[in-house]
Write a structure and sequence with these properties.
Blueprint (H helix, E strand, L loop, with lengths): L2 H16 L6 E4 L3 E4 L1 E2 L5 E8 L22 E3 L4 E2 L9 E2 L5 E7 L8 E7 L15 H4 L4 E5 L4 H5 L11 H16 L5 E11 L1 H11 L8 E5 L16 H8 L7 H9 L3 H10 L29 H4 L4 E6 L15 H7 L6 H16 L9 H26 L5 E6 L15 H4 L10 H20 L23 E5 L3 E5 L3 H14 L18
Parallel strand pairs: 2-5, 6-7, 9-10, 9-11, 11-12, 12-13, 13-14, 14-15
Antiparallel strand pairs: 1-2, 3-4, 4-8, 8-10, 15-16
Helix pairs in contact: 6-7, 10-11, 12-15
Length: 531
């Protein structure tokens, strides 16, 4: 008899008899034995690059299939790979990239299953990977962490008019990962029925799109950091000519989508992702075309997305940094940013755009000229339009859909700079970064606070189940009538309706112009922040 089944049976018997993980050796159903390694910086084990799905080599733009069994008796989970992208970050890039990393506290076992945090990386749906985050400060709180790769750019978000590449494959990859986690995480000592999905930027948008999809709900709580489908640049109208544009750019003379797909399938992924960047294609989540026998992942525009059944009673944490768009480009002041912003987002005639832009400009900078002297006000304008107000609209919608308790935060800690926290700032404290061992006492306090709040939410659905010396404030959830906001700065305090006047302004603006947004394909009703 073949040695492999006997060996697997022996190991399975050992695991079941002892009711603990064989650490760092784990048996995965239908795949085989996987071996991780002990972490050097904490009391946990690391499993890197475990396949959760397989890209179809005959059409890497289509839906992924289930992973195959490991060819080895024991698969060493030590590979860190990235999906094809133009990022210069270190790491092998391959189409065989649908992998996840699992970080397991040593105390986890079948008798002591740990709550699970699934992190979906950001990167504008074009860059990033599962290996971009050091998780030791989360794992030490007794939370098992999973990070995932998903297809990016042309491989993840070609939204075409053919059923073989209808769009949003990257989102489908994420769902395949969640399905794998539901079926297998118990083998690692995780609780498949206490799963929180979280993400930042494109990852946060992904979290909401998973919540709104019609697929089975494979998670129980969500964390949304600085991103929603309504945020500028997070959702696009489908470019059904994108495959043809790519193929022509790479040398094929064609007007047929299927021919273009066949050509791109045989082309080096490095060339395909480089061409997408050179052509400045906007390959993001989209509203998919409908095809017989194909289930759509996204069926409406971001202003019309809803799924009351899945949203109902789901605990939610959502927030932003206080200076999301702190970095303005060198040529920012050479054009009228108010005019350009509205022109690129709303289907208005020239007179309407000029009138609306003048109104927005007067609200933010009055009669001041565009210069560095009003940089802070311009940062607020960009932050409000791209991140802050979309988050407030999302909170209002979630309340209408009877979500569970919703906890809103504002991360404003910027250390000694004291000039505001820009986009992604909170990640420097939530995760371990290069130079983390050189943190000041104050910075370490922020690490302790944010990881405690986030992991309390993962464990209990409540970030402050009790007041402590570390966090002496009870974080109250928002309601239809109140909007408490936990401000994370040098101190931790509870505020209410941050930037109320600015949010009320954008309520009025979207009541007037929201139906003309290029992405809003249906007339929308925008509820006021003050309601």
């Amino acid at each position: 008899m073949d040695f492999m089944p006997w060996f697997l049976l022996l190991m399975l018997s050992y695991v079941q008899a002892n009711l603990v993980r064989v650490d760092p050796l784990v048996l995965i159903s239908n795949q085989g034995l996987v071996r991780g390694h002990k972490a050097a910086d904490g009391d946990y084990s690391i499993f890197l690059g475990i396949p959760y799905a397989k890209v179809d080599v005959n059409n890497p733009f289509s839906t992924a299939t289930d992973p195959i069994a490991f060819p080895e008796i024991i698969h060493d989970a030590v590979d860190e790979v990235r999906c094809p992208q133009t990022s210069s970050s270190v790491g092998e890039q391959t189409l065989n990239c649908l992998r996840l990393n699992i970080y397991v506290p040593s105390a986890a076992s079948s008798r002591n299953p740990m709550p699970v945090l699934v992190w979906i990386h950001g990167g504008d749906f074009a860059t990033g990977s599962a290996s971009d985050y050091g998780v030791k400060n989360i794992v030490r709180h007794g939370v098992l962490v999973v990070t995932m790769n998903y297809r990016l750019g042309p491989y993840g978000f070609l939204c075409l008019d053919v059923p073989t590449a209808s769009g949003n494959q990257g989102l489908r990859d994420q769902y395949k990962a969640l399905s794998w986690i539901r079926n297998n995480i118990a083998s690692f000592g995780g609780n498949p029925y206490n799963v929180t999905i979280a993400g930042q930027d494109a990852g946060a948008t992904s979290v909401l799109l998973q919540l709104y999809s019609d697929n089975e709900k494979l998670f129980h709580k969500v964390i949304i950091e600085s991103g929603t489908p309504q945020s500028e640049g997070m959702f696009v109208n489908a470019d059904v000519e994108a495959a043809i544009k790519l193929a022509v750019h790479l040398g094929l003379n064609t007007t047929e989508t299927e021919e273009a797909i066949q050509f791109l399938t045989k082309t080096s992924p490095d060339l395909v992702v480089a061409a997408a960047k050179e052509l400045e294609l906007q390959l993001k989540p989209c509203r998919e075309r409908s095809f017989s026998g194909i289930s759509n992942f996204v069926e409406s525009d971001p202003y019309s997305l809803t799924n009351k059944k899945k949203v109902r009673n789901t605990p939610i944490m959502i927030g932003n940094t206080n200076k999301e768009k702190k970095s303005l480009s060198a040529d920012y002041f050479s054009t009228d940013p108010f005019y350009e912003k509205l022109k690129s987002n709303f289907n208005l005639d020239e007179a309407q755009i000029e009138k609306a832009a003048k109104n927005v400009r007067h609200f933010y900078i009055g009669d001041s000229s565009l210069s560095a002297e009003v940089a802070s006000e311009l940062q607020d304008f960009e932050s409000d339009f791209v991140y802050n107000h979309p988050s407030q609209r999302t909170i209002t919608q979630l309340l209408d859909e009877n979500a569970g308790k919703i906890y809103e935060y504002l991360f404003s800690y910027s250390g000694e700079l004291e000039d505001g926290a820009e986009h992604s700032s909170e990640l420097n404290y939530l995760f371990e970064t290069a130079g983390g061992s050189d943190r000041t006492e104050e910075e370490q306090l922020m690490v302790d606070r944010i990881t405690t709040l986030w992991t309390n939410f993962v464990k209990f659905g409540n970030p402050t189940p009790k007041s402590t010396d570390l966090i002496p404030t009870i974080w109250e959830p928002v309601t239809a009538d109140t909007r408490p906001v936990l401000v994370l700065d040098k101190d931790v305090r509870l505020d209410s309706r941050i930037e109320r006047q600015r949010m009320a302004y954008w309520d009025l603006f979207f009541t007037t112009y929201g139906q003309y947004n290029f992405i809003a394909r249906e007339t929308c009703v925008f509820k006021d922040y003050d309601d």
